[in-house]
Specification:
Elements (H helix, E strand, L loop, with lengths): L16 H6 L22 E6 L6 E5 L12 E5 L4 E5 L5 H17 L10 E5 L5 H4 L16 H10 L14 H6 L5 H4 L22 H8 L3 H5 L3 H11 L3
Parallel strand pairs: 4-5
Antiparallel strand pairs: 1-2, 1-3, 3-4
């Protein structure tokens, strides 16, 4: 054994140059206070962080495995030495932002009196390091290969809905005007309904004018005419001899 005269006690931070020279020179070394903390025996905890309900919430997942990691959201894994924020591939911007705030508040308010220097690490889905995957037992790197986000599934379901073929009737009678048989204005001015061309509606002779004749006679298109009050339409038709 060594006698007292054979060794010298040197306290960290008070080393003399002779000390550093004896071990090959002074260099940086691991000296974090966290290294003096006894080995952790606290079990890891997993929290599911999501705002899918409209409010950002964090719910603990017990007896968790890899399948409990939700790609649509953010997961917080507390391993005591490190707090991991696992960012799912489909997590939205607000979830990413609020989960960081949550992690800091979680660490600060932990009644166990956590080290405020505990690292908070963000990792993206698909880029998980071994010190993260090790808490999930057997890790399957292909688990989310065919995963579809909620938004992707919604769009897929919508695309599978039967398409309804609907024939739209143009408002204000424009469709009737387009489909009506056309005749020269002189024939339409006939007062005797019996002498009007076949298929002419005697109460709506204006429908049987061509677009050009209609604009010439009424100084407007049929769509504008159809938007007028009925009394004004009748007065205009009387004026041009189509009433």
């Amino acid at each position: 054994s060594l006698t007292k005269s054979e060794y010298i006690v040197v306290y960290e931070g008070q080393e003399k140059p002779e000390f550093w020279n004896a071990i090959g020179g002074k260099e940086s070394y691991a000296n974090s206070k966290r290294l003096t903390v006894p080995e952790n025996t606290v079990p890891a905890r997993l929290f599911h962080c999501s705002n899918a309900t409209g409010t950002f919430r964090a719910n603990e997942v017990v007896n968790f495995t890899q399948v409990d990691l939700v790609p649509d959201d953010v997961m917080l894994l507390d391993t005591w030495d490190t707090i991991f924020l696992w960012i799912g591939s489909s997590a939205n911007r607000e979830e990413k932002k609020q989960s960081v705030t949550l992690a800091f508040n979680y660490l600060r308010t932990d009644p166990a009196g956590r080290d405020p220097g505990t690292p908070i690490v963000q990792i993206k889905q698909g880029f998980e390091p071994p010190n993260f995957t090790g808490f999930f037992g057997v890790w399957d790197s292909e688990l989310w290969k065919d995963h579809k986000s909620f938004e992707e599934m919604r769009k897929e379901l919508e695309s599978q809905k039967p398409v309804l073929q609907v024939e739209l009737k143009i408002t204000n009678g424009v469709n009737d005007f387009e489909d009506s048989e056309k005749f020269p204005i002189q024939l339409l001015k006939e007062k005797d309904p019996e002498k009007l061309p076949l298929n002419v509606d005697a109460t709506h002779k204006e429908l049987h004018l061509s677009k050009e004749d209609f604009r010439t006679v009424f100084s407007m298109c049929y769509e504008d005419f159809s938007n007028l009050p009925k009394w004004r339409q009748d007065n205009l038709k009387k004026k041009v001899g189509l009433f």
